[in-house]
Write a structure and sequence with these properties.
Elements: E1 21-34, E2 40-57, E3 61-76, E4 81-98, E5 103-120, H1 122-128, E6 135-152, E7 156-168, E8 173-186
Antiparallel strand pairs: 1-2, 1-8, 2-3, 3-4, 4-5, 5-6, 6-7, 7-8
Length: about 190
Amino acid sequence: VDNDAAESFGLTMGTVERGGILFSVNGAYSIPSTNMDELVENGYGVLGTLMIRDLFYTQTYGFDMGFETGYIEYEGKHDFIKYAKIIPLMIRLTYRYYVTNYLAIFTSLRGGIQQNTVLADPDANSDNGIDLESSEKYETMSVFGIGASLGLGNRLFLNVQVDYGLIFEKNLMHFITASAGVGMRFSLFTRH
C-alpha cells in the first residue's frame, strides 16, 4: 500500500540497487587561490555529472566512471577584468565506500579540458598600465574531490563535495570548489 505516494517516487530508505546510470546537478561555489586569486573574486556556477554507477563493486564499495561539465563564473578583482568563466569537460572516476545501504562517502579524480574566457576592459587597461586583452583559451585541468551522497531510496540522492583543482597554463592556477546538489539513478541495468 502506498499511502503517501513516497514509494512511487522511490523515497523510502532501504537497500539501494547497484549499477545504472547516475545524473546529478550541483550548485557550486569556487574559491581561487595562488595566481588565480590575484585576478578574480570567488565564483559560482553549476556542475553536471553523468556516470555509470558501480562499474566494479563489492558489498562495501563501488567504482563509477563518467563525464562532468559545467559553468563557473568569477567576477574580476580589478577594473581591467570584467569577469572570467570556466566551462570544463572532464572524465570522472569515483571510488564510493558504502557506510550504509543509503549513505556513501567518495573520492573522485577528474581530468580534461576547459574553456577559459577572460573579458577585459581595454579602457581600464590603459589607465592601469596593464596590457591585458580579452581571451578565450582551451587548457587542461585536473580536479580531486571528496564528498558524501545520501540515497533517498533507489532513484534519488543528495550529494555534497569539496574539490581541489588545477588549471595547467603558464602559471599554474589553483582553486577550491564546494558544491551540493541532487541526482537521479536510471535503471538501464541493475545489480544486487
